[in-house]
């Protein structure tokens, strides 16, 4: 009797094991505790870096939530090589943490496009900075995205505690070893606790995003936390990364391997967006790799690591958060960079959305040209190759990343000098040169419009950004 039932028992056992495995895999990322902050708290205890624009006038609301739970830390398993095929092993489990999520979303569910952008808040300045929101808030709002900024790193948590002890005094996150699991758990909560976090709106797509230092950490997250990441997220925007990646614990970057690729077996949709400064001054070119079915890399000629537009939005935020620095200005030796890289951040978000939901792969782009250890430049001094925005195709200036600030006594001068290194330079052409290039204003607008149409048709410029760019050209006093 037993022997006759043996095949059935084996089949049943295997089926059960497969089912248990699937259950285990789907439950591998814990669902953390989410607690809303009360809206009736004193004004001084408003969220740090609350929105600088009137969200209500756009039909958006802002809410802040505490996120708490436990996470694990890990050590490397085996050798970590440039291919990103990385394994990890458990170092310590059930480490408690408490931090925050800052949510900006449409108030009316009918205005929500189903996509949540989850930003790994940047801590390069030792505090939270909402870099991608700053660059792309217009696109986020007009297209109906929800945005969630997560404080995942110990520097950000420590600063919040110091900034407002009443609001954030019980926060704890003392080691960046937890940052990766916190980012996963934040995404898990957005999916499974949408009634609380999103006012009942269902998140159909989650896009993880990060810029600069956050992008470096996302590189490690994609390579070493692939299973957890793909359980929660559908796509990643890795914006302005370096060739290196971050360690599993504290620290900015690992020195070995000296260059890091996105792993070839990655199944998340990933767009890497790099400025000219990232590619050459910060040497991302060492980590260049071919596009594949899950990866696109776009390089922006003429663009610096950050730019004039970003500073113009972030500086008032710093001045508001720190009244003692209300007169703070960024004073660089050269004028800061004016290349509108925000247009490509907008396009990258839209392309990721389409790639995930509709299977429409983003366009591919040639890299910025590099030959004989130098960037290849055109007759105007601008880089060749890369994604060709109209501002580089129909130039009125030379765009580059050569800038520096003033050193002097006091932390302000040091911080200013440090910031200027990342803000690039734009040098306007002389009036004589402009007249040679564009005999009339109408001629300039015509050329610019044609170049903008080419970028639009190539899939690198969104329709509303095309309209804005052309309108700006029409209003520009050129020549």
Concise synopsis of the structure shown:
Helix content is 37%, strand content 19%. With 479 residues, it is an alpha/beta fold.
List keywords for this structure.
single chain, 479 residues, alpha/beta, nine-stranded mixed sheet, two-stranded antiparallel sheet, disordered N terminus
Mean pLDDT: 91
> Using DSSP, what is the number of strands?
13
Uncertain spans = 1-27
Shape: globular
Main β-sheet: number of strands, strand sense, barrel status? 9 strands, mixed
Q: Roughly how much helix do the residues carry, as a percent range?
A: 25-40%
How far is the N terminus from the C terminus?
95 Å
Sequence of secondary-structure elements: HEEEEHEHHHHEHHEEHEHHEEHEHEHHH
Structural class: alpha/beta
Spatial sequence of strands, sheet with the most strands: 1-2-3-5-4-6-7-8-9
Q: Which value, in Å, is the CA radius of gyration?
A: 24 Å
Question: DSSP helix count?
Answer: 16
The proportion of strand residues reads: 15-25%
Describe this structure in words.
With 479 residues, the chain is α/β, with parallel strands linked by helices. It is built from 16 helices and 13 strands. The strands form 3 sheets. Strands 1-2-3-5-4-6-7-8-9 form a 9-stranded mixed β-sheet, with helices on both faces. α5 (179-192) packs parallel to α8 (226-232) and α15 (441-458) runs antiparallel to α16 (463-475). It starts with a helix and ends with a helix.
């Amino acid at each position: 009797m037993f022997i006759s039932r043996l095949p059935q028992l084996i089949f049943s056992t295997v089926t059960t094991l497969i089912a248990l495995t699937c259950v285990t895999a789907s439950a591998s990322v814990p669902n953390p505790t989410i607690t809303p902050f009360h809206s009736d708290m004193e004004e001084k205890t408003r969220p740090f870096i609350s929105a600088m624009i009137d969200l209500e006038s756009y039909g958006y609301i802002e809410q802040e939530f505490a996120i708490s739970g436990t996470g694990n830390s890990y050590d490397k398993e085996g050798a970590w090589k440039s291919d990103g095929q990385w394994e990890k092993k458990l170092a310590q489990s059930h480490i408690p943490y408490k931090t925050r999520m800052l949510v900006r979303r449409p108030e009316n569910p009918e205005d929500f496009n189903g996509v949540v952008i989850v930003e790994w808040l940047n801590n390069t300045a030792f505090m939270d900075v909402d870099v991608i929101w700053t660059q792309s808030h217009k696109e986020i709002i007009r297209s109906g995205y929800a945005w969630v900024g997560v404080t995942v790193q110990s520097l950000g948590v420590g600063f919040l505690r110091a900034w407002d002890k009443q609001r954030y005094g019980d926060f704890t996150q003392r080691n960046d070893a937890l940052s990766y699991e916190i980012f996963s758990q934040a995404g898990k909560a957005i999916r499974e606790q949408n009634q609380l976090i999103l006012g009942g709106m269902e998140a159909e797509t989650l896009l993880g995003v990060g810029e600069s230092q956050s992008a470096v950490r996302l590189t490690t997250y994609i390579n070493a936390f692939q299973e957890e990441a793909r359980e929660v997220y559908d796509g990643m925007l890795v914006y302005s990364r370096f060739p290196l990646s971050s360690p599993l614990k504290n620290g900015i970057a690992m020195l070995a391997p000296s260059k890091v690729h996105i792993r070839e077996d990655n199944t998340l949709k990933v767009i890497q967006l790099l400025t000219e400064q990232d590619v050459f001054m910060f040497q991302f070119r060492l980590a260049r790799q071919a596009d594949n079915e899950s990866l696109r890399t776009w390089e922006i000629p003429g663009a610096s690591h950050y730019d004039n537009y970003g500073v113009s939005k972030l500086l008032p935020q710093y001045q508001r958060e720190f009244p003692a620095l209300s007169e703070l200005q960024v004073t660089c030796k050269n004028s800061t960079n004016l290349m509108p890289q925000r247009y490509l951040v907008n396009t990258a978000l839209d392309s990721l959305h389409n790639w995930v939901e509709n299977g429409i792969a983003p366009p591919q782009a040639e890299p910025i040209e590099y030959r004989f250890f130098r960037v290849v430049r055109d007759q105007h001094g601008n880089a060749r190759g890369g994604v060709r925005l109209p501002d580089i195709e129909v130039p009125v200036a030379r765009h580059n990343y050569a800038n520096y600030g003033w050193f002097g006594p006091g932390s302000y001068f040091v911080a200013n000098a440090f910031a200027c290194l990342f803000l690039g330079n734009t040098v306007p052409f002389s009036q004589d040169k402009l007249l040679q290039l564009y005999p009339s204003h109408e001629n300039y607008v015509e050329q610019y419009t044609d170049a903008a149409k080419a970028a639009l048709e190539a899939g690198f410029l969104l329709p509303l950004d095309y309209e804005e760019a052309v309108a700006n050209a029409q209003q520009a006093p050129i020549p």
